[in-house]
Fold this protein.
Amino acid sequence: MATAIDNQATVAHVAEHEHHEPQSFLRTYIFSEDHKTIAKQYLISGIIWSVIGISLSVIFRLQLGFPDMNMGFLRPVLGNWINESNKLDPNFYLALVTMHGTIMVFFVLTAGLSGTFSNFLIPLQIGARDMASGFLNMLSYWFFFLASVIMFASMFIETGPAGGGWVVYPPLSALPQASPGGGSGMTMWLVSMALFIVSQLLGGINYITTVINLRTRGMSFSKLPLTIWAFFLTAVLGLISFPVLLSASLLLIFDRSFGTSFYLSEIYINGEALPNVGGSPILFQHLFWFLGHPEVYIVLLPALGMTSEIIATNSRKPIFGYRAMIASMMGIAFLAFIVWAHHMFVTGMNPFLGSIFMFLTLIIAVPSAVKAFNYITTLWRGNIRFTPAMLFSIGLVSFFISGGLTGLILGNSALDIQLHDTYFVVAHFHLVMGAASAFGLLAGVYHWFPKMFGRMLNEKLGYIHFWLTFIGIYLVFFPMHYVGIAGFPRRYYAFTSYDFTKNIFADMNSFISLAAVFTFTAQWVFMYNFVYSLFKGKKATQNPWKSNTLEWTTPIEPGHGNWPGEIPAVYRWPYDYSKPGAKDDFIPQNVPYSQTPESNLPHENELISLEKEIEAQNLNDQFKQPH
Amino acid sequence: MVYIVALLAVVFLGLAALVVSRMAGVVKNVNGPVSEDRIGTSNRINGALFLAFLILGLIGAVWSFLYARQFFLPEASSIHGRRVDFLFWLSMSIITFAFVVTNILLFYFAWRYQHKEGRKASYYPENHKLELIWTVIPAVIMAVLVFTGWRAWRDIMSEAPKDAQVFEIVGKQFNWIVRYPGIDDNKLGAYNYKLIDNNNDTGIDYTDEASFDDFTSTTELHIPVNKPILLKIRARDVLHSVFIPHMRVKMDAVPGMPTRFWFVADKTTDEMRNETGNQDFGYEIACTEVCGRGHFSMRLRLIVEDEASWQAWCKEQKPLLSSTPELAVRIPGNLKAKAAKYLPADGASAPADSATASVQKSGGLAVVRSTIR
């Protein structure tokens, strides 16, 4: 949209900015304040964490699927956690489960997903030079890095990492004498999480401020791509709920180290009655799940937002029910705060509260169903291109439906009595939150890789990666429902102690483990593709997916400030695909209605008169502010 | 089934080999001629694969369900359990229907509307009527499920009937301890966690005379059939959770906060042995809240028997006070006389006293029994 006016502005702008000195290597790539670099830092960290996190799950799946297996071959890595009889130590099994959960939920799907794409896409899609505060953004990453280092280090201390499940319920997590995993590993877990929360808050404040203040001319909230809506709501969720986890962690630190009794009461352990009375372990659960439940949506909403964008682009159709999609995301975000206690139906919480939370929980099914139907209707009568990103997005919708539906059962408190803490729950949340979000992350990487690195990921390898992963994940988690219906409790080291689990489903568990190993192996196709394409991938074009959003109007590899000249103004919503009458099957957001008389709808013709107004709007261009 | 696993392993290996060989081919072509028209064969293959996945997936889902069904828990042995099971399978059938329909639409549309040269997607941004329909239908179905679920929940969680037989179950690392109220007063005595020691592992308070006849077990819980059972649940060290899979019972054990769960078991262990055809069948109590190293092996056997044999069994058990007379020092002076019959020290008088007591008691229980049956 290089009009004459734009060009003049560009010249003026460039002149104005000559004084920017090239920054040192350290400031450009390590302690960078550029949102794109920070996004890449998050992405690489997230990928490394996901390899660690999934590897841990493969180790405990080997234990569950092949309980008689000789684990001696892992001794070089795990040392004494493999005992004399070449078996996994039961304490270490719990540590593996705990670290897998913590890493995947927080370090991969929160930091790796939201951290990467909120940072990368918010300024690019709303038309901003950078985040509202590049410095806070940099701090956010480095707090996360510090949290990562501490969490990683905790895996190498003698008593092992935290081992009370990722929910770290006290008293198990509060009493070092209750398990080795409650020792220094737990202290490091808490310190790491405290830093992680600081990082999330710094990031969240930034995302919210940026979306509210730095939208380009004409980019009203009703023209925001759904990705940005999702990131915005995610940031709000995180900003409200993460401090509660921080308080829960702080109180736990007090109980552990300073003799307080917030969560401890009437405990006799190791031959000693502790003096603590009056505390309540249930208090911790309330505080934990007040974050823990919104956290589910913190990892899921960005995935839903990105796939909305990807599905619309690759179906060459507007997303069906744009406003309904926003409304349901807002509904989900609001309801996310008032359903936390459905994780606690059988903890001894007042049953009346159980009734209330059951009603509230099942309401969430309505906006979720609307989203699923809207996705499906977007495909209907489309002209679908199966890019790898599109494949992963369709996979996400399938997981979202399959996993979400069992939520209707678990959200029903009467049915939850039997299924609580069984493999049914494991299957449910791995599909709806784990796999769906992971597919969102992968779809995002495939879709925005060209914008991030200026090169294309190999499509064929992408197809192979998708099909192996998609089939693999269903093979892992679909049979888990059966194991759960048979009553198998989760976090069990072995199923040999009970008649109702002995000699049943041993082959099913082996099968699940094989499928897990298979799925994990398939990820190396992606790893190879990622690294290879980073250096040798096909060069990207400016708008490889023929997409409407603003990031594709930047140069192939956007530099500091994203747009070399004036930031483009926005005139239309981001989903004008296959508009009747239009020459191409897409009309980018920065094309004014006055240039497309052939495809304008009647009410859009009226908007032409507003275009001058939009152009004259005060532009929040950070480069024009004194800085 | 081992063969099926082996077979699948081979299939996986085959697939892996295929991938590796394909990968080599793909990598070779990476720098070769790239066709500008990207939307071609691959698009058709992916579309077809979605359809194939749909069909094979549905077959796999049905087959795996039919296979796995034999291993599900048998019909619930408690009254509320069967109600819950009914609701579970009702919800399951509704969501299975939704699952099948939505996945069919998703994959069918993906295949049907794959890219075709020259076709233009239809510009179809919204339809309020359609959106209203699929907001209202799930909402109505949800309302029905919630309402039935809520009524069941309310009944299950209601106060236990007055005549419920009370037991206490205490979780510790890593076993359960059951405390019976004793045959003389059928009342649980008070407890205090500070009184716990090796002799008194549930911290029974012997300043309460209701404690004198209480007895404990770390291996089994015997309960009478067809009678409301109230489990008073607590934990000694960390969180545990009482899980009786065949009864559809689950409730956390929380240190410092006693919890409870009541239910009616209506199939004895023997009846279940006949029903399942497994003469070794036994009910079990497990732990479902992670509690440390031994979390996976906190087994407690649960024996459901008819009231008469339950009574008889209880009578054979010795109160903790009798088996551990050292605890007598904790009894305050004014109650020493009442406790005397449980203590072997006055060997002569004890049997006579307990005999009279049990006669009275069994009379009382006979009344209870007659009202229940």
